[in-house]
Predict the structure.
Amino acid sequence: MANRVRERLEGGDTALCITLDFPTPAAAEYLGGLGVDALAVDLERGFPDWGRLEDVARACAVVGVDLIARLPVDADLIGRCLDIGVDGLELTHVESADDISTLLRCVRYAPDGDRGLGRSRSSRFGSYPGGYQKLVASGGVPLIVIHIESRRGMEGLPAILRPEVDVVVIGAYDLSNDLGLAGEIDRPPVQDAVAAILDSVRRAGKVVGLSASTAAGAAHARARGARFVLAAQARLLSASLEQLDRAVHREGGAG
């Protein structure tokens, strides 16, 4: 497991991850070839069949970019993603130390965890060089990204920020909804909550992750200390199209 993003972050660099809203192997190969650090696939709100996810993983391997699976803390989903060979797990709505304990049991082989051995892409279909003993000895713990996006998550932060957690993403929109201000992320109560999370994450020595799908948004995220920047394929397309639409249909453009 390459964990290229982890290597960048540990070296003090910043990583850019694009969430594939339209996940296909071709899109992964194309975007990965443009120089991004990671691509993410959203299993929280549904995804194509597992075979297609495996093909997306292969495309990422071809262009040398990490594949991160975004999903809830669900043992079955985590196990399937690990078998396919994802490089990272992006866990949404993390709210307690129990969530982290469940995650760690899923990613570790026995006797430290519940991860099983079998013929899958991650084990080279049972032909791992050196055999299963070497596979287990290698560890292979994926990049671990967690989302804090609720009051419960904020309250649980001291116990959540375990050494194994690599990145903490602040989900401002879900947090605003939990605070009764759905979508109003610029309101003081939401910004105060975001600032409190940022402070806790920094003091714990963890990498901050923020969403940004424009250059201005990325600059703002960097200014707030983010070194893991999440952009969305759909938002990138819509932002570019809005600029193109204004250029084509600008005032006086008719005729």
In short: The mean pLDDT is 90. The chain has twelve helices and eight strands. Residues 188-203 form the longest helix (16 residues).
